[in-house]
Amino acid sequence: MSLVKIKRFLLDLKDDILDFIYPQACPICRNSLKREEADVCEECWKALALLPSPYCPYCASFLENQDDITNHQCPNLSRPRDRRILAVRSLGTFDDHYQKLVHRLKYDKKIPLGRRLARKLGESIKQERSFPGCDMVIPVPLHRARHRARGLNQSEVLAEGISRVTDIPSGKNILRRKKNTKDQTYLNAQQRAENVKGAFVVTQPEKINSKRVILVDDVMTTGATLNECARVLLDSGAEDVFAVTLAVVVE
Ligand SMILES: [Zn+2]
Ligand SMILES: [Zn+2]
Description:
The chain folds into 2 domains: 47 residues, no CATH class; 200 residues, Rossmann fold (3-Layer(aba) Sandwich). The radius of gyration is 18 Å and the shape is globular. The protein is built from 9 helices and 6 strands; from the N terminus they run αααβααβααβαββαβ. By secondary structure, the protein is of the alpha/beta class. The two termini are 16 Å apart. A 4-stranded parallel beta sheet has the order 1-6-5-2, sandwiched between helices. A two-stranded antiparallel sheet has the order 3-4. The longest helix has 19 residues. The chain binds zinc ion (2 copies). One zinc ion binds next to helix 2. The site of one zinc ion (ZN) has 8 residues, from helix 2.
């Protein structure tokens, strides 16, 4: 385990202990929350660092408008057809603040916080008109066993929230995770790609045939999971795949 990972593990542990002792505190600044503040205080909410526009998941270039997205020639892909995801929209980079928010949603199951974050994401997609003509929002699924153990799929909460704001229907059982893949936290990019290979299946291909799909996940790390989901969706007849995440890990 690298030092960075040990540090992150210890910080998570510290947060867990603090959350246990002060459940009514803002996870970012630790001040106590006012009654009307749901899960994160107004000041921290306003101070969240936001990314300006969608970007290419393969080279991280910002793609500011529809033309950029359509015409992007990615320098990191040898063949244009390797480009499975046309663009990703994330709220921010996976800094300390987003890490705390994701943790609250994922492990403490703070669904109202998830909805609030989803609204922010959905509004950015709507205002920028970055993903026009999309027909469906699809959450990255958890394996049945993991979903049962955790009690919630954070991506589903986000997808439903985005669907509500954008009026794009959400299809949550169209993509299924058939392999209960290993936890990816300590895997590198290549191991992650191996780990998720063949992990997903489209159960209702007729629902995505010729559709423009928005995949939703909480965090994009190397993009292995989103890329594999996109591959399966495109192989099953989807027209285009975009992705939306709360945060993106920048190495
Ligand atoms: Zn705060
Ligand atoms: Zn690119």
